[in-house]
Amino acid sequence: MLKNILAITGKPGLFRLVSRGSNMLIVESLVDGRRMPTYARDKIVALSEISMFTNGEDARLCDVLTSVGRKEGLKPVTFDYKKADNQTLGAWFDEVLPDWDRDRVYPSDIRKLIQWYNVLIQAGITDFSDEEPRDENQK
């Protein structure tokens, strides 16, 4: 599901890929439903391509979001993560990804993860897999 969910540098929120044009993509905001074109000059990344640093092998964002969903019961994060101090964010993230790299994952990264998780939940997206749903007729 996360292959069609995009983050665009300079634009707040997350976007769903709607269509592809010759030199652009048409995306729809998960926050307000507005559609807009994005061009090659925009830095666009699919959530399925993002990972977080750990002390071992990097953790894919889909796995981290799944872990957040288990911790939060597939409901939005309720504590005020925007104003939370670094220790509070770190303690919360310890429960989500115990092996996270404390030197390379910054508090701003944890805040962004929570923000994206909340946007996805509020948009009704609870399947955080990075694969497309398979049609049972396909092999």
Keywords:
Arc Repressor Mutant, subunit A; 139 residues; alpha+beta; 2 domains; SH3 type barrels; 5-stranded antiparallel sheet; two-stranded antiparallel sheet
Task: Describe the 3D structure.
This protein is of the alpha+beta class and about 140 residues long. Helices cover about 30% and strands about 20% of the residues. The protein has two domains: about 1-45, SH3 type barrels (Roll); about 50-120, Arc Repressor Mutant, subunit A. It has helices spanning about 60-70, 85-95, 105-120; strands at about 5-10, 15-20, 25-30, 35-40, 45, 50, 60. Strand 2 and strand 3 (about 25-30) form a beta hairpin. The longest helix is centred in the last third of the chain and has 16 residues, at about 105-120. The model has no long low-confidence stretch (mean pLDDT about 90).
How are the SSEs ordered, and which strands pair?
Blueprint: E1 5-8, E2 15-20, E3 24-29, E4 35-39, E5 44-46, E6 51-52, E7 59-60, H1 61-72, H2 86-96, H3 107-122
Antiparallel strand pairs: 1-2, 1-5, 2-3, 3-4, 6-7
In which order are the strands of the major sheet placed? 4-3-2-1-5
Alpha-beta classification:
alpha+beta
CATH topology of the largest domain: Arc Repressor Mutant, subunit A
Indicate the radius of gyration in whole angstroms: 16 Å
Count of DSSP strands: 7
Q: Which band does the percent of strand residues land in? A: 15-25%
Corresponding CATH architecture of the largest domain? Orthogonal Bundle
Fraction of helical residues: 25-40%
Task: Specify the biggest β-sheet.
Answer: 5 strands, antiparallel
Order of helices and strands: EEEEEEEHHH
Low-confidence parts lasting 5 or more residues at pLDDT below 50?
none
Mean pLDDT: 91
The first-level CATH class name of the largest domain: Mainly Alpha
State the end-to-end distance.
19 Å
